[in-house]
Amino acid sequence: MFFNRDEKEKRVTLPLLPLRDIVLFPHMVVPLFVGREKSIAALNAARARKGAGPDEKPQIVLSAQKRAKTNDPAPDEVFHVATLGNILQLLPLPDGTMKVLVEGVRRVKITNFTPNDTHFVVEAADIEEQWEKNIELEALLRAVGSTFRAWAELSRRVPPEVQQQVAAIEDPSRLSDIIAAQLSLKLNDKQLLLELESPVKRLEKIYELMQGEIEILKVEKKLKSRVKKQMEKNQKEYYLNEQMQAIQRELGDKDDSKGEIQEIEEKLKTKRMSKEATLKVKKELKKLRLMGPMSAEATVVRNYIDWVLSLPWYDETKDRHDIVEAENVLDEDHYGLKKAKERILEYLAVQTLVAKMKGPILCFVGPPGVGKTSLGRSIARALGRKFVRLSLGGVRDEAEIRGHRRTYIGALPGKIIQSLKKAESNNPVMLLDEIDKMSTDFRGDPSAALLEVLDPEQNNTFNDHYLDLDYDLSKVMFICTANSMHSIPGPLQDRMEVIRIAGYTEDEKMSIAKKYLVPKQREANGLADVNVKLTGTAVRTIINRYTYESGVRSLERECASIFRKVARDVLKNGKRDIVVDRKMTMKLLGVPKYEPGRKEKEDQIGLVTGLCVTQAGGDTLATEATLMPGKGKMIVTGMLSDMMKESAQAALSYVRSRSKRFGIDEKVFENNDIHVHCPTGIPKDGNSAGVTIATAIMSTITRIPVHREVAMTGEVTLRGRVLPIGGLKEKVLAAHRAGIKTVLFPWGNRKDVKEIPRKIREAVRLMPVKHVDEILKVALVAEKPELLFGGATTSAPLPAPTVEPSQTVS
User: Fold this and answer.
1) Contact yes or no for 397/443 (Cβ under 8 A)
2) Confidence band (pLDDT; 50, 70, 90) for 771?
3) What's the distance, Cα to Cα, between the start and end of the chain in Å?
């Protein structure tokens, strides 16, 4: 016998209700809670549909979403095979949502989406179902029925009335739908059953799924039975032990320390430790048995054993060897920092190829706020390791690193061992923060204690004074951070791979603010659901007028300040679209703290713009020189170090040695004092200001102004040679921030130009020089460079350099 349920295709146009994590089958009655605006509008439209008789139930099309998290699905984000349903009951709730009771009627296929602003309206056609009643179908019905009864008996989730209903059904289509509604299947499996047009194929698929569920349920039942027996056994043992302890207490044996010793022995049996550590714990445990439980020495021994047993001797996390995923994690958390990221990926690549590899010792050096500390956390996330941070700022006791010996009261292991216990892994990423801020006193030098920790050839036998055991630190990835290297001892520097992180350019700060800082502060200040837009001009204004830094810490603070003020305005005046532009930024943040660019406003005699590197990154250093009647003394002020004073003396000697060539009377040096001053109250060190001081002295003596758009750096010798310096990238970035157009730097630093971003190289003219004479010809504002000191001065534009064209670096 052949059955055809729909002899003629029937089409309907009805509202659509998208469903999350549920598939509605025909003959299935289910309550739904509806809260989305479009869904509520669809229900109201179905209830108010014209043409429905008094006894006819409102109808609606119900289809599952492909992704449950999508709040406003598009037409291609819902399944097109759906169910036509009757709305049995519709109840508005006090919170604005609705509770609806729907009943599945039949399968339909969505053929078209009708445009509608408030809700989905679809055109749906009935799906034709065909089957032939024969012996095979009868056998399939019986097999499915018996399998369903077996599954229901194991799962114990199906009510008896539903089992009776299923047993009485002979229609294969209805049987398959009712059973499918009872099974705990994934959304895609349920949708697959809904899309199968043939009831016979649906029954075959359901039979297959139920067989798999039955096997799983049998295993679950077996596991539960086994666990129950084990629990009963444990409870019995616990009960008997408690009885034994109670009997012992009644007999006068009140020594509870035996239970504690037994607990330690059990831990010792299961804990994997080094042979040395195991023997040490057994020895200490033997001593503990002979001690009184209330003695002070017993407490010391117990604490020691607890520390040894709590350390992760062989417990480690598995590294993530997916380099692409690791790279994505690093890029997701930080912008730029190319060198640091490349080094981590290189380590991961080598570790993937080599079975065992010692952890690298990296040191990130850079100004505050460039992301050194947070980069360490990102590295741990990229490698799939635990992360621990150890702040060394202000640490001045060697015992902080190596621990105290057990002879002292209150002795503890050092911070390294404590951090490993906290990480619960022997291969974490350990960040030694602010390693340059350590100091020394009469208690020892903590930097000397780090020599063993940060040496890959020695740290596999690190000996903490408290433990007095060798502990393997070779699997730990140590990452140090510092603002400068000069305060770190040489032997410690030699053990670390230094990666310098320079300050950010203005464009990099713009990208960081757009991608990280602004979204972070918007959410932190409760404005995630408010449309607040910080324009590019506003961010640029904050960077140029309210911050002057190499990093982005102050930039983040100023962004947070803006969002706090916007949050206050939202609470006061209600939610609305807010655009924070340049004008509004200056209104919210008040008077600008800095002028855009810090170069001099005019060419001046004896005033030269130098470049230096501080703990806050690169900066400009105005250097002044003046000539006054005296006895030929050299006065140097401005909190300068001995090295800078010697550099100033060398600059003066060079100028005096070249006085005849430059047409300077020797009596000028005999009858006048020269005063060189570097403003600002910040201590200054280094020898890179030599050419700056020489240029200032020459400008003062010859009365020729120095070009305001020229900055320079380099060490000077008595013969006028310009020697290489450090920190060229940071210095050029500082010059760019200050609006300087030309930077003169030593010829030996040409190799460092590649590290400077291309946009900065295009915006700033970089000129390598070998001799001070080349600097004077470019920096001093003279009409004829070849007759530098022979005529009148002028404020003409910057002349072309006399160096060879190949010397100009772009």
Assistant:
1) yes
2) very high
3) 88
- d(C-alpha 637, C-alpha 615), whole Å: 21
CA distances (Å), origin 2, targets 10, 422, 470? 21, 72, 83
Structure tokens at 64: 């599952």
Residues 6 or more apart in contact with residue 91 via CB below 8 angstroms? 98, 99, 100
What is the model's pLDDT at position 710? Answer: 93
Confidence tier at 744 by pLDDT (50, 70, 90): very high
Q: Judge whether 763 and 740 are in contact, CB under 8 Å.
A: no
What pLDDT, on a 0 to 100 scale, did the predictor assign at position 695?
92
Cα→Cα distances 34→22, 101, 333, 344, 351, Å: 13, 11, 37, 49, 52
Chain CA centroid to CA 722, Å: 42
Phi-psi region of 424 (alpha: psi -120 to 50; beta: other; left: phi over 0): left
Cα–Cα–Cα angle for 710, 715, 719, rounded to 5 degrees: 105
Among 510, 678, 668, which residue's Cα sits nearest to residue 609?
A: 678
Rounded Cα distance, 456 and 495, in Å: 8
18 in Cβ contact with 120 (< 8 Å)? yes
Band of pLDDT at residue 692, cut at 50, 70 and 90: very high
Determine how β-strand 722-723 pairs with β-strand 715-716.
antiparallel
In b/e form, how buried is each residue of 566-589, taking b as 16+ CB within 10 angstroms? Answer: bbeebeeeeeeebebebebbbebb
Q: Which of 762, 565, 560 is nearest to 552 (CA)?
A: 560
Give CA–CA dist 137/143, Å, rounded: 10
Is 419 catalytic? The answer is: no
Map tokens 């404020």 to a residue. 795
The answer to whether 666 touches 686, Cβ cutoff 8 Å, is no
Catalytic site residue from 688, 699, 729, 777: 688
Q: Which of 341, 372, 731, 777 is catalytic?
A: 731
**Does the annotation count 731 as an active-site position?**
yes
pTM of the shown model = 0.56
Average pLDDT over residues 532-537: 89
Q: Are 522 and 580 in contact (CB under 8 A)?
A: no
How long is the chain? 810
Q: In which element (H, E) is residue 177 found?
A: helix 172-182
